[in-house]
Fold each of these.
Amino acid sequence: MLGGKEVAGGKLKEMGLLHWENNATSTNQIGFTALPGGYCNEGSFNGMNGMGLWWSSSDESSMSIVATAFEIWNIYSFVKVAKDDWNKDVYLSVRCIKD
C-alpha cells in the first residue's frame, strides 16, 4: 500500500517510460508532468532517469550555502516526494510559473 508522499509523486509525474525508468504508478493527475532531470554536482550528472529535483521559491534554511528543493525520487518503482536542503552549488531544475 502506498502512503501519501508516494501517491503524490505519481500524481505529479509524466506517465509512461519515455523519460522515467520504472514508472508504473504515475498518473500525472495534477498536470505538473514532472520529468526527471537529476542533478549535477562538480561536473558529474546523476539520476537523469530516476529523479526530479527543483529549487523551491522559498528558502527555509538558515545557512547561506544551503537552499530548499522539492524532490521526486523514482527508485525501483517506489515514488517519493520530499522537501530537502541542497548546497547552492549543486545544479537542480527550475520550473517557471506564469502569473
Amino acid sequence: MKRHGIILLSVIWLLFAFKNDKPAYHYFNIDGKKVKFSKVIKEVKDADIILFGEYHNNPISHWMQLELTKELHALKQDKLVLGAEMFESDNQLIMDEYLSGLISEKKFEAEARLWPNYKTDYKPLVSFAKENNLDFIAANVPRRYASLVYGKGFEGLEELSDDAKKLIPALPIKYDPELACYKAMMSASGGMPMHANNNLPKAQAIKDATMAHFILKNWSEGKQVLHYNGAYHSDNFESIVWYLRKANPDLNIKTISTVSQADVDSLMDENKGIADFILCVDENMTSTH
C-alpha cells in the first residue's frame, strides 16, 4: 500500500507540474488546431513563396524565423532565397557586396540603413545567408518613396528619375482601396492617426507592392523564397499576398503569422484564419526593443 501511495503522489505531482507549465508559444493551423513545428515544415516545404509575418520586437518570432530558415535550407540548399522587409531596395547592392565578401561586415553595418534591432533580430538571418552562400533580397521600398506617396499619392512616383524607378514596381501601381488591410488604416479602430490623409494606405501599399515585386524578381520555378515581414504585410492573405497573386495567380504561397495572447494553449477566434499557420506567443514575452 505504501508503494502504491508513493506512485499515486508521484502521478499527482507530475500532473500538477504539467498543468502549471508555462509554454512560451504554440503553433496553430488556419482553423485554430494546435500543430507541431514539424507539421509546419511539412506543409510549407513545397511552397514557392513563404511569408513569415512577425512582431518586430518579439524574440520568439525571430528565433522561429531562424529555425525555419535552417530547416528549409536543409531541404532546399541553394534553391532557397531569403528576403526581408527590413532592408530597402536601394541597399541591394551593398547587401550583395557584403554577402559576396567584397566588403566587410563593419562597412556593411555602417553604410546600410539597418533597423535598431538588427544585431539581435536580423543579423542572424543575414549571417546565415552569408555562411551558406544564399541570396538575400532587400525587398522594401526606400522609405523616402513611401513618404513621397504619403505626400503626393502614387502620382508622385511619376516624378522619379529612370534610375529611381528601378527601385520600385512598374508604374502605375495597382491598388485596391477596398482591401480590409487598407480600409482599416483610415479608421480609428485601425490604430492609425486621426489626421491621416487618404494617401496613408497608399504609402502602405507601395511597400507591399515593392516587396511583392522584388520577391517575384528573385523567384523562378524550382526556387523557394522565404520572406520575413511584419505580420500586417501578409495577414488575412492580403497586402503582399494580394500583389503576388495579381502578378501570378498560380503561385503556391504559404503564410505564417504571429499573435500574442495571455493563454497560448488555445487560439482566440479573432486570431483564427489570418494565416496558414499562426505562431501564438505569450503576451508577457520579453521584447527585443
